[in-house]
Amino acid sequence: MYPLTKPESTIHRLTRKSVRSSLLLGVRASPQLRLDWEKRRGVGERGGSEEDIMASLWIASLLLFSLFNLTVGRPIYPLPSKQDNKVKQPLQTSRPYNIAHRGSNGEIPEETAAAYMRAIEEGADFIETDILASKDGSLICFHDVILDDTTDIAKHKEFADRKRTYEVQGSNMTGYFVVDFTLDELKSLRVKQRYPFRDQQYNGKFSIITFEEFIAIALDANRIVGIYPEIKNPVFINQHVKWPHGKKFEDKFVGLLLKYGYKGAYMSEDWLKQPVFIQSFAPTSLIYISNMTDSPKIFLIDDFTMPTQDTNQSYWEITSDSFLEYIRSYVVGIGPWKDTIVPPENNHLTTPSDLVDRAHAHNLQVHPYTYRNENSFLHFDFHQDPYSEYEYWLNKIGVDGLFTDFTGSLHKYQEWAAASGTDEKSAYGLLHKIALMISSYD
Q: Is the C-alpha dihedral spanning 152, 145, 199, 230 positive or negative?
């Protein structure tokens, strides 16, 4: 209903045959780039004077030399920011946070450099990622402990013997596990869209990125953009990946954040310069890292039926007032699945629970997940309109941030709401009237 544009500035820049594209793919530029450029300039097969040929070759060489100096001569991390934080546009803190869930993955395959750059371009306050570890201990941005669903691992015959069965959170799982591959091997894979009904044109174009590369993308933005990394499956990772000197997954995770300057309590001067929320479904991990960093933490809450992966506590226990009072000593908020706040029945919303009100009473923020534009993810009450869903959660439920696959949609809604006044509900009403007017001409 409200189509998102795909400006050349990000999508085409990241996918066309260029040296920048080859960097994001994890490979070096090919000499074929020079030949293609020469053909477009009328050199080579189409002939040309010796002077034209020499001039064209000189320009091509100079161009490639400049591009190689900018890209291939160094890894994507650590990149210095193009602008000092003193002159960057600050993080907005006057309205609920727009959290780009795995980047702008409604458009581009999740957790890739392109998805995160697109999310920043679309107005994300925070870019969100899941952190796992490779066999050799490198931290990567990837959601699943197996590679099967969102990479081309099945095409790599050299890895055919790597399929394993492990226990993950109490259940056996079979597939190609991240922990059985080195970083170099993981970099040889290409990422694809998780959902078949989303745009497939970027499948196979981007590689898995590291935690450090993810950080570099945020720091290199032309405004202050926060990061929202998750300590993903820490019990499983600590079972299968070992670090020197008895270090744990959580130690490595926090160490990289501190290395790149992420520190400070929520809303402190340090935090506002480099905003971060650390998230996890594992309460013991959040408590453990509290001794290492004062950066704000978010306790994620799963479905009604899922116990915590490390303490085996039920949903009802971890959402009780006594537990919220306990965990508030370590976290600044909770991140529940949205259907546990307003349970659906036959795809219709039912009466909202009191979880948001109780969390706020304990001075905890609430950042629910996940908001998606497609009708298959929208409850009937929203009439296939994601803007209606945003209006409901921001104004009726009153949450403090939203994890969304479509950063651009949420940003547009909030911008339109701000332009129309302080009441986002009135902005939605105006948008709805405009939509009805447009549809009447169809």
A: negative
